């Protein structure tokens, strides 16, 4: 830990090097950098210390859609102008991003080490 005289000496050198106008900007950006570093290390330690979960495999079941009854209202010119939409089969929803688990990271590392050994 820094003592008071060491801290004062660092501030004086910083004042001489950067000047009184730039010193607050430098201190602010240094503080932001330290804060971001702490956030990143906390996130990494939480990811590594998280309990392992078995991967859940989702099987999509496609259920046939029942045919839609025809509209009973009389057709208007505006309704005739709109094209009929064709029924599209339901596609299973895929997650946009799935976070890596400890097991998947271990498997990737093992695969990479096996490739290097070959």
Automatic annotation (TrEMBL):
It comes from the Bacteria. Residues 50-65, 75-102 have a biased composition (Low complexity). The keyword Transmembrane helix applies. It is found in: Cell membrane. GO terms for cellular component: TAT protein transport complex. It is a single-pass membrane protein. Residues 48-118 are annotated as: Disordered. One of its GO terms (biological process) is protein transport by the Tat complex. PANTHER family: SEC-INDEPENDENT PROTEIN TRANSLOCASE PROTEIN TATA. Belongs to the TatA/E family. This is Sec-independent protein translocase protein TatA. It comes from Selenomonas ruminis.
């Amino acid at each position: 830990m820094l003592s008071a005289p060491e801290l004062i000496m660092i501030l004086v050198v910083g004042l001489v090097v950067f000047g009184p106008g730039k010193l607050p900007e430098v201190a602010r950006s240094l503080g932001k950098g330290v804060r971001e570093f702490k956030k990143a290390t906390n996130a990494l330690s939480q990811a590594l210390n998280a309990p392992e979960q078995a991967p859940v495999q989702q099987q999509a079941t496609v259920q046939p859609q029942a045919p839609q009854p025809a509209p009973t209202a009389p057709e208007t010119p505006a309704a005739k102008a709109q094209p009929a939409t064709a029924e599209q089969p339901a596609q299973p929803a895929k997650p946009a991003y799935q976070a890596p688990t400890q097991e998947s990271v271990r498997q990737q590392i093992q695969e990479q080490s096996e490739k290097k050994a070959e």
